[in-house]
Each structure stands twice: as structure tokens, then as C-alpha cells.
Design goal:
With about 250 residues, the chain is α/β, with parallel strands linked by helices. The chain has a single domain, classed as 3-Layer(aba) Sandwich (Rossmann fold), CATH 3.40.50.620. It has six helices and twelve strands. The strands form three sheets. The chain has a seven-stranded parallel beta sheet with strand order 7-11-6-1-4-5-12, with helices on both faces. The protein has a three-stranded antiparallel beta sheet with strand order 8-9-10, with no helix packed on it. A hairpin with a 2-residue loop joins strand 8 and strand 9. Helix 2 packs across helix 5 and helix 3 crosses helix 4. The N and C termini lie far apart (about 55 Å).
Length: about 250
């Protein structure tokens, strides 16, 4: 089984967010970047699928500049066999998806794994776009995936229940937290990562469909107002005039 796992770099969850003076980008000064947690789950599950099959390979891929290499090396330390960095600044979901799809198109992958979303922009778009660009079937936010030959039985939660689908390779799926537990790289993996291949490729295109006009922090949370249960009219007035519920 040949699997491609998409890795994105995101700010650590404890980061205090600020923006550049023009308001168009994250101020990265002093920020610690990590592998997107959902992508770590995807990587771990890919390794488990490879181990269950008894053969195959897992390739990690990211779109980013040289600053992403420590985290792509971490993916190698966790267990990926090799890695690819497409040397472009990720600015748009379609841009990222098209670069990854173009790389994967002729490589013979059976499965492309993404996280359900990145925890910085929470778009959840890249996996579906990759599938559309490759004309592959896809299933989003999966809880379970089991292969029998080239056919996978996949489960995911839906409103009011759980859906079970069957797909044949090749396919694109995205991971959510119930899928598995992330692996922590051990010393042997860290040492081995130093010699595993990491290819750096020029972008095949850099088409953007969106542009950031401005980024702003959400307004500070206000205090809570408590209304006596018997004073319904005051509650109605507050909802209309302060909460702006019409």
C-alpha cells in the first residue's frame, strides 16, 4: 500500500495570536510551530495501515518554505519513509490542494490522507479539493478505516448516527480525533529521520483563488448579565437591544 499524508504547519495551541502591521498575515515572531494535530492522526493511521498490510510506503508531503523542515523531519521521525516539501508559501486552500494533487497524479498512490482541518484557519477544504482535482472518491472526518485488498470499509459520524461506506482505491480520506492516538517519535526514529530522503520541489503553479484583506482578533468577551426568572420582559428587551436578536 502506497500512502501520501498531507502535513501542515500550524502555531502551537498555546500561542497568543497577533498580526502583521498590515493586518494580512500572522505575526510569526516568537511563535512555535507544530504539525497540525489532525495531520498527526492521519500520519499515525497511515503507518498502522502500512503495518497491517505488511508492506508499502508512507510519504509525508507539505507545502511551505524551509521553516517547515523541522516538522516534516518530525513526520519522518514518527515513521514516514520519505518526505516531500513543495517550496511555496501556503496562502490558499486551492493553491495547496492543486500543488499536492499535481505531485500525486502520476505517483501511484493508493490513498491520500489529510487531517479534517488545520487548527489555524479551520477550513477543512484541502482534502476534498485534492479528490476533485484527481477525480478520486473521498470521505471526510472518518472514525475508522479497514482495508481488504484494494477495498476499504470506512465509518464516520453523521447527524443522528454513523455512516458506513465502502470505497476502492485510489481515494482521499481525512482524519479526526477518534481515528487513532498520535505516535510520539522515539530516539531511534529521530536518529533515522536524519538520513531519510526529503525532496524539495519547485511549485508547478502558484494559482490563488482567494486573497486576505484583513485579519482581526475577535472582540473581547463581555460580562454576563443575570435576569430574574420572573422578569421575562427584561430578558426580551436585552435579547432585542443588546444581543441584537431580532
Amino acid at each position: 500500500m502506497k500512502i501520501l499524508v498531507c502535513i501542515s504547519q500550524v502555531p502551537d495551541t498555546t500561542t497568543k495570536i497577533s498580526f502583521t502591521p498590515d493586518g494580512k498575515a500572522l505575526n510569526s515572531a516568537g511563535v512555535t510551530f507544530i504539525i497540525n494535530p489532525y495531520d498527526e492522526l492521519a500520519l499515525t493511521k497511515a503507518l498502522e495501515l502500512k503495518e497491517a498490510a505488511g508492506s508499502g510506503s508512507v510519504t509525508a508531503i507539505t507545502v511551505g518554505d524551509a521553516s517547515t523542515e523541522p516538522n516534516i523531519r518530525k513526520a519522518l521521525a514518527i515513521g514516514a519513509d520519505d518526505a516531500v516539501r513543495i517550496d511555496a508559501q501556503p496562502l490558499d486552500a486551492f493553491q495547496v490542494a492543486s500543488l499536492i494533487a499535481e505531485y500525486a497524479r502520476d505517483k501511484g498512490f493508493d490513498l491520500i490522507f489529510t487531517g479534517r482541518e488545520s487548527i489555524d484557519f479551520n477550513g477543512g477544504q484541502v482534502g476534498g479539493m485534492i479528490a476533485e482535482l484527481l477525480d478520486w472518491p473521498s470521505v471526510n472526518v472518518i472514525n475508522s478505516i479497514v482495508f481488504n485488498g484494494n477495498k476499504a470499509t470506512i465509518e464516520r459520524d453523521i447527524d443522528g448516527g454513523r455512516e458506513v461506506v465502502e470505497l476502492e482505491t485510489p481515494m482521499v480520506v481525512s482524519a479526526q480525533k477518534e481515528l487513532t492516538e498520535p505516535r510520539i517519535p522515539n530516539m531511534r526514529g529521530i536518529m533515522a529521520a536524519r538520513t531519510k530522503p526529503l525532496a524539495v520541489l519547485a511549485p508547478s503553479n502558484n494559482e490563488l483563488l482567494t486573497e486576505v484583506n484583513t485579519l482581526t482578533l475577535p472582540p473581547a468577551k463581555g460580562g454576563c448579565k443575570f435576569v430574574d426568572p420572573s422578569n421575562v420582559q427584561e430578558l426580551v428587551n436585552l435579547l432585542h437591544n443588546e444581543a441584537k436578536i431580532i
